[in-house]
């Protein structure tokens, strides 16, 4: 696999996306990795998900969907956690695992619209500029938002940091690849240990409940191009780019 086959290296947004969410690309051979670091739209997402095969699993009374190998590993991790007296349950219902492109688009807008209103009211953003941004296509909107964030006009839920710590840009979420699962019990060390021993790791700094299926042993991750970062008292494995 070559970097320029999965990511448009001249494009700042693609590079940022690869750095933030690219851990999936070093997943085990049993995992199907996405065709690019940014899905182009609903059609490409659906084709990918259909080709991989969608596997349902029930956790905490909620049916979630993942790649088959990821779903099986998650159920094994849940069983291991139960031996220690803990459950592993989905955070946010069915959206904890597989999502469609339109779901990621809706989540994106749920951050962008309130932030535009917030900064207009505070006089940091001209209403005309906000309207221009609203009219852009999703991928152009990402670039425009990241440019505003350079001026400290932030789009996260509390307007204090980059939107990318709050929600993935449309088409970039690991949930589209069916390799991500948001966990209620992420603060329990025993839960994190059980997940890690079955190939599930935290790979997005600042998104603590979000676990990514890599399908490899923890000791192998550095050799495959991830680096270990400690943040918020937890261990994250992020692309070493
Ligand atoms: Zn997530």
Kindly list the characteristics that best describe this protein.
3-stranded antiparallel β-sheet, binds zinc ion, Muramoyl-pentapeptide Carboxypeptidase, domain 2, alpha+beta
Which range best describes the helical content: under 10%, 10-25%, 25-40%, 40-55%, 55-70% or over 70%? Answer: 25-40%
Q: Rg from C-alpha positions?
A: 18 Å
β-strand percent reads 5-15%
CATH C-level class of the largest domain is Alpha Beta
Care to count the β-strands? 7
Termini gap: 15 Å
What is the chains' assembly state? single chain
**CATH 2nd-level architecture of the largest domain:** 2-Layer Sandwich
Mass-distribution shape: globular
Describe the sheet with the most strands.
3 strands, antiparallel
Structural account:
The structure is a single chain. This protein is α+β, with helices and mostly antiparallel strands. Helix content is 38%, strand content 13%. It folds into two domains: 3-98 and 175-239, Muramoyl-pentapeptide Carboxypeptidase, domain 2 (2-Layer Sandwich); 101-165, no CATH class. Strands 3-5-4 form a three-stranded antiparallel β-sheet. A two-stranded antiparallel ribbon has the order 1-2. It is globular. Bound molecules: zinc ion. Zinc ion binds at residues 175, 180, 182, 210.
């Amino acid at each position: 696999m070559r970097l320029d086959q999965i990511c448009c290296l001249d494009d700042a947004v693609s590079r940022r996306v690869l750095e933030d969410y690219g851990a999936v690309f070093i997943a085990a051979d049993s995992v199907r990795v996405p065709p690019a670091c940014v899905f182009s739209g609903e059609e490409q997402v659906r084709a990918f998900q259909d080709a991989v095969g969608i596997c349902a699993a029930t956790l905490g009374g909620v049916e979630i969907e993942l790649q088959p190998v990821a779903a099986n590993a998650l159920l094994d991790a849940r069983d291991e956690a139960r031996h220690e007296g803990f459950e592993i349950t989905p955070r946010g219902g069915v959206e904890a695992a597989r999502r469609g492109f339109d779901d990621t688009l809706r989540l994106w807008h749920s951050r962008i619209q309130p932030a535009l209103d917030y900064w207009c009211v505070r006089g940091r953003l001209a209403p005309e500029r906000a309207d221009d941004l609203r009219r852009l296509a999703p991928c152009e909107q990402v670039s425009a938002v990241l440019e505003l964030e350079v001026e400290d006009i932030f789009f996260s839920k509390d307007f204090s940091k980059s939107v990318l710590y709050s929600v993935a840009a449309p088409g970039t979420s690991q949930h589209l690849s069916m390799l991500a699962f948001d966990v209620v019990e992420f603060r329990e060390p025993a839960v994190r240990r059980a997940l890690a021993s079955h190939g599930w790791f935290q790979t997005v700094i600042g998104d603590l409940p979000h676990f990514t299926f890599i399908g490899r042993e923890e000791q192998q991750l550095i050799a495959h191009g991830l680096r270990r970062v400690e943040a918020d008292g937890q261990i994250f494995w992020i692309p070493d780019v």
